[in-house]
């Protein structure tokens, strides 16, 4: 059975979406079946059916999620879902000049872990040089996924 990888992005001005698309291209080149999702189209309960998810999200306002990711986030804050089947990694886009640097990416990473999900790879808090830092993070995450592929549960 082919392996399936979901890549979810939350964005205001497109940076996270562009990176998510590049992660999808890399993953497909590695043989993954990918699903690229805007968080505006994802409900927390959808995570029950997913196994491996990369989140590429920016932070806005004063440490807030992008508008399109707000419903997903507030639902995730309220839920008691068991996500122990889920492995994930978060790449956050932010700007160190803001007080709550990468606040949303940090809180998303923490919340998923509290709900029982396992980190594939450490969260990365990217500054405005995200185009330079993302490729290395994506390579490391994909290498981690490849190393797990033989033992992965049936794909969702
Ligand atoms: C009005 C505004 C508010 C922002 N607030 C934050 C913030 O609180 N924390 C942070 O780390 N970055 C903040 N940023 C930086 C954005 O996260 C950064 O520009 C990011 O690359 C945007 O990615 P996107 O195009 O995917 O939304 C803010 C940027 C703007 C313009």
From TrEMBL:
Gene3D superfamilies from the UniProt entry: 3.40.50.360
GO CC annotation, single: cytosol
Keywords: Flavoprotein
UniProt key word Electron transport: no
Gene Ontology MF term list: flavin adenine dinucleotide binding; FMN binding; sulfite reductase (NADPH) activity
Superkingdom to which the source organism belongs: Bacteria
One Pfam match: Flavodoxin_1
Keyword Flavoprotein: yes
Domain called Flavodoxin-like: residue spans: 5-142
Cross-referenced PANTHER family: NITRIC OXIDE SYNTHASE-RELATED, SULFITE REDUCTASE [NADPH] FLAVOPROTEIN COMPONENT
Name the record gives this protein: Flavodoxin domain-containing protein
